Amino acid sequence: MSEDSNLPGLRMVVLAGPNGSGKSTVTDGLRLSQKFPPLYINADDISKNELGHIPDANSRNMAAAKLAEERRKTALKNGEAFAFETVMSTPGKIALFDEARSLGFSVDLIFVTTNDPMINFVRVENRVQLGGHAVPEEKIFERYARAMQLLPSAIEKADTAEVYDNSENGILPQLIAAKKDSIIEYSEPISDWVKECLISICNERCSSRERLITELKVLDPDAEILDANIGNNKCYSGLIVGITDFHVMQRLNTNPKQYLLHDKALCAPRTYEVKKSSVISYAFGADGKHKLLSPKKSHGKSL
């Protein structure tokens, strides 16, 4: 679905970033804007304000996450503009981008991060001392790495995107990148970590995409090439015709002239082989991670 086909006012605002990045600081300011959707879904708020009767913190947080997911799905079904907060450390959250866009929503991503996960760790520790909710140390670092790895994919899937650096305490988060009309612009001066973690990766992904498309058009000038829609538990079968470090090109069994470009960052971890049939599934569990496929379903016959 093109950006122009999204319905006016029908927006899904995604407030994302690793634990301890300061998403709430940015959110508090955004909620003062008239453009911010009235419906705001936050699992932390649900846990704190609605589920205090559940004594165990882990059980309470799991219940809150489930309720938040249900409310997001309900808002999409009802065509109600909404915003929600997420760490965005699993591909299942990005699948929601495609689900929303297929229903006419515009997806606006606001991503808040830091230049070092140790900053996030210290902030979470300070938050706990002030009575806030805890996050296990290993999860802080794991989620930081995964969220940063998924950021380029999320930017591509979103209609608009803003990325903020909130590394410095005591000053407002700094806008470092913004996407509008499919163009990403970076704020000067550009720091080394932005070049390494964002600009370099985005450029390599762009080159990967162009290479596979160019190679395919030489072999099949009439090929119709689409980005894989990863929402709603989609599953695709067909011949693998091209592979790079970032993408997989697949010819669909249902239409030999139609090809899908899969983003490896959003696919389940596995090995692909050119000229072999494969099933690529985007079935995600409640935790946003890929559900495991049986060997029979995940590997096709050699063609």
UniProtKB/TrEMBL annotation:
SMART domains (alphabetical): AAA
Highest taxon in the source lineage: Bacteria
Keywords, alphabetical: ATP-binding, Nucleotide-binding, Plasmid
Gene3D superfamilies (UniProt xref): P-loop containing nucleotide triphosphate hydrolases
Pfam families (alphabetical): Zeta_toxin
InterPro entries per record: AAA+_ATPase, P-loop_NTPase, Zeta_toxin_domain
Record-annotated AAA+ ATPase domain positions: 9-134
Molecular function per GO: ATP binding; kinase activity
Protein name, per record: AAA+ ATPase domain-containing protein
